[in-house]
Protein backbone atom coordinates (compact mmCIF):
# COMPACT_ATOMS: atom_id res chain seq x y z
CA UNK A 1 0.00 0.00 0.00
CA UNK A 2 2.81 2.37 0.92
CA UNK A 3 4.53 1.53 -2.33
CA UNK A 4 1.43 2.48 -4.31
CA UNK A 5 1.16 5.78 -2.43
CA UNK A 6 4.79 6.58 -3.12
CA UNK A 7 4.41 5.88 -6.82
CA UNK A 8 1.32 8.04 -6.90
CA UNK A 9 3.22 10.86 -5.22
CA UNK A 10 5.94 10.65 -7.83
CA UNK A 11 3.45 10.76 -10.68
CA UNK A 12 1.34 13.59 -9.23
CA UNK A 13 3.56 16.43 -10.62
CA UNK A 14 3.25 14.95 -14.11
CA UNK A 15 -0.51 14.71 -13.77
CA UNK A 16 -0.87 18.19 -12.32
CA UNK A 17 1.35 19.78 -14.96
CA UNK A 18 0.17 17.81 -17.97
CA UNK A 19 -0.28 21.08 -19.82
CA UNK A 20 3.46 21.74 -19.56
CA UNK A 21 4.29 18.49 -21.32
CA UNK A 22 1.58 19.08 -23.91
CA UNK A 23 2.76 22.64 -24.61
CA UNK A 24 6.38 21.56 -25.07
CA UNK A 25 5.25 18.69 -27.28
CA UNK A 26 3.15 20.90 -29.56
CA UNK A 27 5.81 23.60 -29.88
CA UNK A 28 8.54 21.05 -30.58
CA UNK A 29 6.47 19.21 -33.18
CA UNK A 30 5.50 22.41 -34.97
CA UNK A 31 9.10 23.62 -34.99
CA UNK A 32 10.38 20.27 -36.23
CA UNK A 33 7.81 20.19 -39.03
CA UNK A 34 8.59 23.73 -40.17
CA UNK A 35 12.34 23.11 -40.18
CA UNK A 36 12.23 19.79 -42.05
CA UNK A 37 9.65 20.97 -44.59
CA UNK A 38 11.77 24.02 -45.42
CA UNK A 39 14.86 21.92 -46.04
CA UNK A 40 15.87 21.09 -49.61
CA UNK A 41 14.76 17.69 -50.84
CA UNK A 42 17.68 15.33 -51.38
CA UNK A 43 17.95 12.44 -53.81
CA UNK A 44 20.16 9.36 -53.65
CA UNK A 45 21.64 7.39 -56.53
CA UNK A 46 23.69 4.24 -56.25
CA UNK A 47 26.07 2.45 -58.58
CA UNK A 48 27.12 -1.10 -57.76
CA UNK A 49 30.27 -2.78 -59.06
CA UNK A 50 32.29 -5.97 -58.67
CA UNK A 51 36.06 -5.54 -58.21
CA UNK A 52 38.61 -7.68 -60.06
CA UNK A 53 39.79 -10.93 -58.51
CA UNK A 54 43.51 -10.28 -59.06
CA UNK A 55 45.65 -7.28 -58.17
CA UNK A 56 49.23 -6.58 -59.18
CA UNK A 57 51.05 -6.76 -55.88
CA UNK A 58 54.28 -5.33 -57.34
CA UNK A 59 52.73 -1.95 -57.98
CA UNK A 60 50.30 -1.85 -55.08
CA UNK A 61 52.59 -0.16 -52.57
CA UNK A 62 53.52 2.60 -55.02
CA UNK A 63 49.91 3.21 -55.98
CA UNK A 64 48.73 3.44 -52.41
CA UNK A 65 51.49 5.90 -51.56
CA UNK A 66 50.43 8.11 -54.46
CA UNK A 67 46.86 8.39 -53.22
CA UNK A 68 48.13 8.86 -49.65
CA UNK A 69 46.12 6.12 -48.00
CA UNK A 70 47.43 4.32 -44.90
CA UNK A 71 46.96 0.77 -46.11
CA UNK A 72 49.13 -2.32 -46.35
CA UNK A 73 50.54 -4.20 -49.33
CA UNK A 74 48.31 -7.14 -48.45
CA UNK A 75 45.12 -5.31 -49.39
CA UNK A 76 42.49 -7.13 -51.39
CA UNK A 77 41.29 -5.64 -54.70
CA UNK A 78 38.07 -4.57 -52.97
CA UNK A 79 39.96 -2.71 -50.24
CA UNK A 80 42.23 -1.09 -52.81
CA UNK A 81 39.27 0.17 -54.86
CA UNK A 82 37.55 1.53 -51.76
CA UNK A 83 40.79 3.31 -50.84
CA UNK A 84 40.82 5.00 -54.25
CA UNK A 85 37.10 5.89 -54.01
CA UNK A 86 37.75 7.55 -50.64
CA UNK A 87 40.95 9.29 -51.69
CA UNK A 88 41.31 13.07 -51.85
CA UNK A 89 42.42 12.64 -55.46
CA UNK A 90 39.07 11.15 -56.40
CA UNK A 91 37.12 13.78 -54.48
CA UNK A 92 39.16 16.60 -56.00
CA UNK A 93 38.52 15.31 -59.54
CA UNK A 94 34.76 15.17 -58.84
CA UNK A 95 34.70 18.69 -57.39
CA UNK A 96 36.39 20.03 -60.52
CA UNK A 97 34.35 17.91 -62.97
CA UNK A 98 30.94 18.99 -61.64
CA UNK A 99 31.74 22.49 -60.37
CA UNK A 100 30.83 21.62 -56.80
CA UNK A 101 32.41 24.80 -55.42
CA UNK A 102 29.41 26.66 -56.78
CA UNK A 103 26.86 24.03 -55.80
CA UNK A 104 28.14 23.85 -52.23
CA UNK A 105 28.52 27.63 -52.11
CA UNK A 106 32.14 27.58 -50.95
CA UNK A 107 35.34 29.10 -52.30
CA UNK A 108 37.71 26.49 -50.91
CA UNK A 109 38.15 23.11 -52.57
CA UNK A 110 38.89 21.47 -49.22
CA UNK A 111 35.43 22.47 -47.97
CA UNK A 112 33.79 21.16 -51.13
CA UNK A 113 35.71 17.89 -50.78
CA UNK A 114 34.47 17.56 -47.20
CA UNK A 115 30.86 18.13 -48.22
CA UNK A 116 31.20 15.62 -51.03
CA UNK A 117 32.56 13.04 -48.59
CA UNK A 118 29.61 13.68 -46.27
CA UNK A 119 27.23 13.20 -49.22
CA UNK A 120 28.81 9.91 -50.32
CA UNK A 121 28.48 6.49 -48.77
CA UNK A 122 30.61 3.53 -49.86
CA UNK A 123 29.62 0.07 -48.70
CA UNK A 124 30.46 -3.57 -49.39
CA UNK A 125 27.90 -6.37 -49.48
CA UNK A 126 28.55 -9.82 -48.05
CA UNK A 127 28.90 -11.04 -51.65
CA UNK A 128 31.75 -8.59 -52.25
CA UNK A 129 29.93 -6.03 -54.38
CA UNK A 130 30.89 -2.39 -53.77
CA UNK A 131 28.16 0.26 -53.79
CA UNK A 132 28.71 3.99 -54.12
CA UNK A 133 25.71 6.07 -53.04
CA UNK A 134 25.67 9.82 -53.62
CA UNK A 135 23.04 12.25 -52.31
CA UNK A 136 22.29 15.64 -53.85
CA UNK A 137 19.49 18.14 -54.24
CA UNK A 138 19.64 17.36 -57.98
CA UNK A 139 18.71 13.71 -58.78
CA UNK A 140 20.50 13.81 -62.15
CA UNK A 141 23.68 15.17 -60.59
CA UNK A 142 23.62 12.50 -57.88
CA UNK A 143 23.52 9.79 -60.55
CA UNK A 144 26.23 11.41 -62.65
CA UNK A 145 28.60 11.75 -59.68
CA UNK A 146 28.01 8.14 -58.61
CA UNK A 147 28.79 6.90 -62.12
CA UNK A 148 31.85 9.16 -62.38
CA UNK A 149 33.39 7.41 -59.36
CA UNK A 150 33.61 4.31 -61.56
CA UNK A 151 34.67 6.15 -64.72
CA UNK A 152 37.42 8.04 -62.92
CA UNK A 153 38.66 4.82 -61.35
CA UNK A 154 39.97 3.69 -64.74
CA UNK A 155 41.72 7.02 -65.28
CA UNK A 156 43.45 6.87 -61.90
CA UNK A 157 44.37 3.25 -62.50
CA UNK A 158 46.04 4.16 -65.80
CA UNK A 159 48.27 6.57 -63.92
CA UNK A 160 48.97 4.38 -60.89
CA UNK A 161 49.08 1.08 -62.83
CA UNK A 162 47.49 -0.75 -59.93
CA UNK A 163 45.33 -3.22 -61.84
CA UNK A 164 46.19 -4.99 -65.09
CA UNK A 165 42.56 -5.65 -66.02
CA UNK A 166 40.64 -3.02 -68.00
CA UNK A 167 38.10 -1.83 -67.18
CA UNK A 168 39.04 -2.19 -63.55
CA UNK A 169 35.58 -3.16 -62.32
CA UNK A 170 32.41 -4.74 -63.67
CA UNK A 171 29.36 -2.51 -63.29
CA UNK A 172 26.34 -4.45 -62.03
CA UNK A 173 23.92 -1.55 -61.68
CA UNK A 174 24.78 1.92 -62.98
CA UNK A 175 23.33 4.86 -61.07
CA UNK A 176 20.12 6.38 -62.40
CA UNK A 177 18.34 9.54 -61.24
CA UNK A 178 15.96 8.87 -58.37
CA UNK A 179 12.28 9.53 -59.02
CA UNK A 180 11.51 10.35 -55.39
CA UNK A 181 13.45 12.17 -52.64
CA UNK A 182 15.24 10.30 -49.88
CA UNK A 183 15.03 13.21 -47.45
CA UNK A 184 14.29 15.09 -45.38
CA UNK A 185 12.48 12.38 -43.41
CA UNK A 186 9.71 14.53 -41.93
CA UNK A 187 7.81 11.76 -40.16
CA UNK A 188 10.92 10.28 -38.58
CA UNK A 189 12.14 13.68 -37.38
CA UNK A 190 8.75 14.51 -35.90
CA UNK A 191 8.55 11.12 -34.18
CA UNK A 192 11.97 11.51 -32.54
CA UNK A 193 11.22 15.14 -31.64
CA UNK A 194 7.90 14.10 -30.11
CA UNK A 195 9.50 11.49 -27.87
CA UNK A 196 12.22 13.86 -26.71
CA UNK A 197 9.74 16.69 -26.07
CA UNK A 198 7.56 14.43 -23.91
CA UNK A 199 10.61 13.43 -21.87
CA UNK A 200 11.63 17.08 -21.47
CA UNK A 201 8.07 18.01 -20.50
CA UNK A 202 7.97 15.34 -17.80
CA UNK A 203 11.33 16.43 -16.38
CA UNK A 204 10.31 20.09 -16.37
CA UNK A 205 7.04 19.30 -14.57
CA UNK A 206 8.83 18.33 -11.37
CA UNK A 207 10.70 21.61 -10.67
CA UNK A 208 7.67 23.69 -11.70
CA UNK A 209 5.45 21.74 -9.33
CA UNK A 210 8.05 22.04 -6.56
CA UNK A 211 8.34 25.82 -7.00
CA UNK A 212 4.58 26.29 -6.88
CA UNK A 213 4.27 24.22 -3.72
CA UNK A 214 6.91 26.34 -2.01
CA UNK A 215 5.08 29.52 -2.96
CA UNK A 216 1.82 28.14 -1.57
CA UNK A 217 3.47 27.18 1.70
Quick tags:
single chain; 217 residues; alpha+beta; 4-stranded antiparallel β-sheet; 4 strands; 61% helix; 11% strand; elongated
Work out the helix count: 9
* Distance between the ends: 27 Å
Strand arrangement, major sheet? 2-3-1-4
Structural class: alpha+beta
Largest sheet: 4 strands, antiparallel
Note the run of SSEs as H and E: HHEHHHHHEEHEH
Mean pLDDT: 83
DSSP helix fraction: 55-70%
- Tell how many strands the DSSP assignment holds: 4
* Proportion of residues in β-strands: 5-15%
Describe the protein's architecture and organization.
The chain is of the alpha+beta class. Helices cover 61% and strands 11% of the residues. Strands 2-3-1-4 form a 4-stranded antiparallel β-sheet. Helix 5 packs across helix 7 and helix 5 packs across helix 8. The radius of gyration is 26 Å and the shape is elongated. Residues 55-61 and 68-73 have low confidence and may be disordered.
What are the SSEs and their pairings?
Blueprint: H1 2-16, H2 18-38, E1 43-50, H3 57-66, H4 77-85, H5 88-98, H6 100-103, H7 109-118, E2 120-124, E3 130-136, H8 139-160, E4 170-173, H9 186-216
Antiparallel strand pairs: 1-3, 1-4, 2-3
Summarize the structure.
By secondary structure, this protein is an alpha+beta fold.
